[in-house]
């Protein structure tokens, strides 16, 4: 039997020639064979998919879900479109395998588009299947995962395809902040499918096979005359390093789907469920001498903030997001003393850790995700300020920086700030200062919180003095020294209650773990309103 032809089952044929009904055994055997045929797919199309270096939808689900846990829905679904020869091509599944399964024993809802059927394109029936699993994910409070491999809206089904996408987008937005949504791109993800991905909380892409764009290279050439390859237009590298759409990139489907499993194990099932925390590891008394070595006292010297994070978390239990995009800020999900936390840290190794347009966007979205799902925030501060200049101002650094400010101001989860070294100006405020609602602020003896660094400050407030002196070098050094002693000494902020404790760097893991334990039962109700007006 070909899955692309309407078929008459042997039992029905038999009934036509023999009026007595077929036996139950016969019907069961019939059903078994039909299901097997559907699951096997069209051999040539499957071979073509494999030749493209891609797995089939069902092979992917096998990798993603716990063995034997997949429960399929609407395997027998077919489209009911007319015209353009569609009546003669009515494959079962309609190009998407949908249902539910478990990941490490926890329920998830999934769909996997089948590129072997109409190029995985989305028509009415295909869309309704995705909408159904999304509805079930929302009503059962379970994570939703989409495996995308699709040419976008099914051209032959016209407006019904567009209507189908609209229904998915609408549901996805209603589910945002209620259940985690994960999009995995394992082939073309064009047109409407690209927006499903943009609405998800996390996007995975696989190098070489994933392409994500609104319109493919042919349309680009026809409209603009520009010739681009699929990879240049929307390959994994582009979205991982330039557009910021890809949260994670992997070399192959196996490692990608294994990483999706790891991510799910770090997320709550919904906004009301408990975090998947592990038993405490005795971190509240754990000293980490390496922390005093990693960070140079000289604030101009760089270091890798990821090394600091590695010392704070439980045995490498950390997943970094957007590793290659806006690398001047590091965002990661991790566990500290068994508790799931969101880590945000300036990265002195990249652009000296300044905040700019992209870093603000990246951190803001992460903070909002953590807040929506009750994940406590730990913010590691070593920031010289916002990046100055015409490019940034014209690109809207104020608007985008305001997103991060807004996200922190709005967050009601437990919030711990750790100031490692410098924290200047607006960037100090934005990086979860006490003034915008941090619950606990810890600072290293190397902390330097001020409107700006000593050199810049001296240039402004002592301009006349420096112009008049016969020995500007000595005078400047003296003024810088005075500024540092009087305004930027380790206890300055703590004396004013804006830092709760100045801690020995080696105690940081222990102090954060104690802080998390202290804040575990934090409850804070926002003032009722329809919604705020986040500066988008
Ligand atoms: C119907 C489609 C299709 C589509 C692919 N196919 N895309 N059928 N509607 N959108 C079919 C092909 O006709 C072909 O069928 C099979 O899928 C495989 O496609 P190929 O082109 O042979 O494969 P490949 O060379 O690998 O190229 C894949 C592709 C290309 C890059 C995805 O097909 C393509 O560019 N498709 C259109 C992409 C696009 O621009 N989509 C935007 C739609 S607009 P046969 O029978 O020959 O095997 C949209 C708007 C929604 O989505 C907006 C909402 C906001």
Secondary structure layout plus pairing:
Layout: H1 10-17, H2 24-40, H3 43-51, H4 57-64, E1 71-73, E2 96-103, E3 106-113, H5 124-140, E4 144-150, H6 158-175, E5 181-190, H7 192-199, E6 202-206, E7 211-213, H8 217-224, H9 230-234, H10 236-243, E8 248-250, H11 253-266, H12 290-294, H13 305-312, E9 318-321, E10 329-336, E11 339-346, H14 357-372, E12 377-383, H15 390-394, H16 397-410, E13 415-424, H17 425-430, E14 440-443, E15 448-450, H18 454-461, H19 463-468, H20 472-487, H21 492-495, E16 501-502, H22 508-519
Parallel strand pairs: 3-4, 4-5, 5-6, 5-7, 6-8, 11-12, 12-13, 13-14, 13-15, 14-16
Antiparallel strand pairs: 1-2, 2-3, 9-10, 10-11
Bound molecules: hexanoyl-coenzyme A (HXC).
GO molecular function, one term: transferase activity
GO cellular component, one term: acetyl-CoA carboxylase complex
Pfam family, one: Carboxyl_trans
Any overview of this molecule?
- GO terms for molecular function: propionyl-CoA carboxylase activity; transferase activity.
- This is Acetyl-CoA carboxylase, carboxyltransferase component.
- It comes from Thermostaphylospora chromogena.
- Keywords: Transferase.
- InterPro entries: AccD/PCCB, AcCoA_carboxyl_beta, ClpP/crotonase-like_dom_sf, COA_CT_C, COA_CT_N.
- The chain is of the alpha/beta class and 536 residues long.
- It has 4 domains: 40 residues, no CATH class; 214 residues, 2-enoyl-CoA Hydratase, Chain A, domain 1; 200 residues, 2-enoyl-CoA Hydratase, Chain A, domain 1, CATH 3.90.226.10; 34 residues, no CATH class.
- Helix content is 41%, strand content 17%.
- The chain is built from 22 helices and 16 strands.
- The strands form 2 sheets. Strands 1, 2, 3, 4, 5, 6, 7 and 8 form an 8-stranded mixed sheet that branches.
- Helix 17 links the parallel strand 13 and strand 14.
- The model has no long low-confidence stretch (mean pLDDT 95).
- The protein binds hexanoyl-coenzyme A.
- Hexanoyl-coenzyme A (HXC) binds next to helix 6, strand 5 and helix 7.
- The site of hexanoyl-coenzyme A (HXC) has 19 residues, from helix 6, strand 5 and helix 7.
């Amino acid at each position: 039997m070909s899955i692309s032809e309407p078929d008459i089952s042997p039992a029905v044929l038999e009934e036509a020639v023999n009026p007595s009904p077929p036996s139950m055994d016969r019907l069961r055997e019939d059903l078994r064979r039909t299901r097997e045929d559907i699951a096997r797919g069209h051999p040539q199309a499957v071979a073509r998919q494999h030749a493209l270096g891609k797995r089939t939808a069902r092979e992917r689900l096998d990798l993603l879900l716990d063995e034997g846990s997949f429960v399929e829905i609407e395997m027998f679904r077919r489209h009911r479109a007319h015209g353009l020869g569609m009546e003669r091509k009515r494959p079962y599944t309609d190009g998407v395998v949908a249902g539910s399964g478990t990941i490490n024993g926890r329920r998830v809802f999934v769909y996997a588009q089948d590129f072997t059927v109409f190029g995985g394109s989305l028509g009415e029936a295909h869309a309704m299947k995705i909408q159904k699993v999304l509805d079930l994910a929302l009503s059962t409070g379970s994570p939703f995962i989409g495996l995308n491999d699709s040419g976008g809206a099914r051209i032959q089904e016209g407006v019904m395809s567009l209507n189908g996408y609209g229904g998915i987008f609408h549901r996805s937005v209603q589910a945002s902040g209620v259940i985690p949504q994960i999009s995995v791109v394992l082939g073309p993800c064009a047109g409407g499918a690209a927006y499903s991905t943009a609405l998800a909380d996390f996007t995975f892409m696989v190098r070489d096979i994933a392409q994500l764009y609104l319109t493919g290279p042919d349309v680009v050439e026809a409209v603009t005359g520009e010739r681009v390859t699929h990879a240049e237009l929307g390959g994994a590298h582009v979205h991982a390093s330039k557009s910021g759409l890809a949260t994670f990139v992997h070399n192959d489907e196996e490692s990608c789907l294994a990483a999706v499993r790891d991510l799910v194990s770090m997320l709550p099932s919904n906004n009301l469920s408990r975090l998947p925390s592990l038993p405490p590891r005795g971190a509240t008394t754990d000293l980490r001498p390496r922390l005093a070595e990693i960070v140079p006292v000289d604030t101009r010297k760089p270091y890798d903030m990821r090394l600091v994070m590695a010392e704070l978390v439980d045995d490498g239990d950390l997943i970094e997001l957007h590793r290659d995009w806006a690398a001047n800020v590091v965002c990661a999900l991790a566990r500290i003393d068994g508790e799931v936390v969101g880590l945000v840290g300036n990265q002195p190794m990249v652009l000296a850790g300044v905040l700019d347009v992209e870093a603000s966007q990246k951190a803001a979205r992460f903070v909002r995700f953590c807040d929506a799902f009750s994940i406590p925030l730990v913010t590691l501060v070593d920031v010289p300020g916002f990046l100055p200049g015409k490019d940034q101002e014209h690109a809207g650094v104020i608007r985008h920086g305001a997103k991060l400010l807004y996200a922190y101001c709005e967050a009601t989860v437990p919030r711990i700030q750790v100031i490692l070294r410098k924290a200047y100006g607006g960037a100090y405020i934005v990086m979860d200062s006490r003034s915008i609602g941090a619950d606990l602020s810890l600072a290293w003896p190397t902390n330097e919180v001020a409107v700006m660094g000593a050199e810049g400050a001296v240039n402004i407030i002592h301009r006349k003095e420096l112009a008049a002196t016969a020995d500007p070098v000595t005078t400047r050094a003296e003024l810088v020294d005075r500024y540092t002693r009087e305004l930027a000494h380790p206890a300055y902020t703590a004396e004013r209650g804006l830092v709760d404790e100045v801690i020995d760097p080696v105690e940081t893991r222990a102090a954060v773990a104690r802080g998390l334990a202290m804040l575990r039962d934090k409850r804070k109700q926002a003032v009722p309103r329809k919604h705020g007006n986040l500066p988008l």
